[in-house]
Design a protein that fits this description.
The complex is a heterodimer. Chain A is mainly alpha-helical. Chain A contains 9 helices and 2 strands, in the order αααββαααααα. In chain A, α2 runs antiparallel to α3 and α5 packs antiparallel against α6. Chain B has a two-stranded antiparallel sheet. Classes of the chains: A mainly alpha, B mainly alpha. At the A-B interface, α3, α4 and α5 of A face α1 and α3 of B.
């Protein structure tokens, strides 16, 4: 395959990193998402809605900082891997995920209204998923890297299991609006989060089928959609409002209200 | 004693709001701290795990503060 396609990008800073184009775009999109959510939430007084806004603003906020650090090469290191030579590892990506993925899951848990033990378990398994992925990223043999990837992927399957069982059944006890929003966000999360381990295993940190430029583009698109897209769907929904659990008015009641 | 139920009002817990802000600043700062940590003589792996721990702890702190963002006053 054409290596220029696999190394897609443009070296903005002139330091030999074509992926800086995608990191720069990622920084801008996360920043726009953060300010959009701040503007949308400005003046919101409802206590439940405030909680969703607080979480959802912080997610792209910290991702902006992570992308900026990767753009300037601060969030980048090199790892010597036996048989593969020196790999460029954007470690800030993992630090970002350690912060953002628990908060995205907290949004879903608040929507489903599950108890704090379930929230703790879900976030614990999520942290295990990211930390084992981190160990894999820093491992110096391919066997160790693939092994930790497998452990991380198994932890991810448990996160999905919790989302589709405990949280989903809790969400079913809430209003149609909440159920609909919860289902949409769960699908977004399940589909996008599944793409991460696939991209990792075919990317430079795994089999090396995809070059760093295309890999960075892929992660940027996934990150922006999973954070800003997720937040947009959540904050545009009436599900975050306190009366979203109220039963739909009957035709007679609606007519009286009019 | 009155039979009239007291009206409970949820008010913003300022300590939690400040906690969210401080946690965010620490988490954002940590993303740029690794080179500085290494300059103090700490090895990459130690500095890296330190930064990762800060990210996870601040996320957990934010989760706690969000769950306690409002307090009910009667």
């Amino acid at each position: 395959m054409d290596p220029t396609v696999m190394q897609a990008g443009f070296d903005i800073l002139g330091d030999g990193r074509p992926e800086t184009l995608w990191l720069g775009i990622g920084t801008l999109l996360m920043l726009i998402g953060t300010f959009y959510f701040i503007a949308k939430g400005w003046g919101v007084t409802d206590e439940e809605a405030r909680e969703y806004y607080a979480i959802t603003i912080l997610v792209p906020g910290i991702a902006t900082a992570a992308y900026l650090s990767m753009f300037f090469g601060i969030g980048l290191t090199e790892v010597e891997v036996a048989g593969r030579g020196t790999l460029d590892i954007y470690y800030a990506r993992y630090a970002d995920w350690l912060f953002t993925t628990p908060l995205l899951l907290l949004d879903l848990a608040l929507l489903a209204k599950v108890d704090r033990v379930t929230i703790g378990t879900l976030i614990g398994v999520d942290a295990l998923m990211i930390v084992t992925g981190l160990i894999g990223a820093l491992s110096q043999t391919m066997l160790a890297r693939y092994s930790w990837w497998l452990v991380s992927t198994i932890a991810f399957i448990f996160v999905l299991y919790y989302l589709l069982t405990s949280l989903r059944s809790a969400a079913k006890r809430r209003s149609a609006e909440v159920q609909s929003t919860f289902n949409t966000l769960t699908v977004i999360t399940a589909v996008l989060w599944t793409a991460y381990p696939i991209l990792w295993i075919i990317g430079t940190e795994g089999a090396g089928v995809v070059g760093l430029g295309l890999e960075t583009l892929g992660f940027m698109v996934l990150d922006v959609t999973a954070k800003v897209g997720f937040g947009f769907v959540l904050l545009s929904s009436r599900a975050i409002l306190p009366d979203s659990d109220a039963p739909e008015p009957s035709a007679g009641e609606a007519a009286t209200a009019d | 004693m009155s039979d009239t139920p007291e009206t409970e009002v949820a008010v913003l817990n300022v300590r939690s709001a400040v906690g969210i802000g401080v946690s965010f600043v620490i988490a954002a700062g940590a993303l740029f701290a690794l080179p500085t940590l290494q300059n103090t003589g700490i090895g990459f792996n130690t500095a890296f795990w330190l930064v990762s721990a800060v990210e996870l702890v601040t996320a957990l702190a934010i989760a706690y503060f969000v769950l306690n963002l409002h307090e009910t006053r009667g």
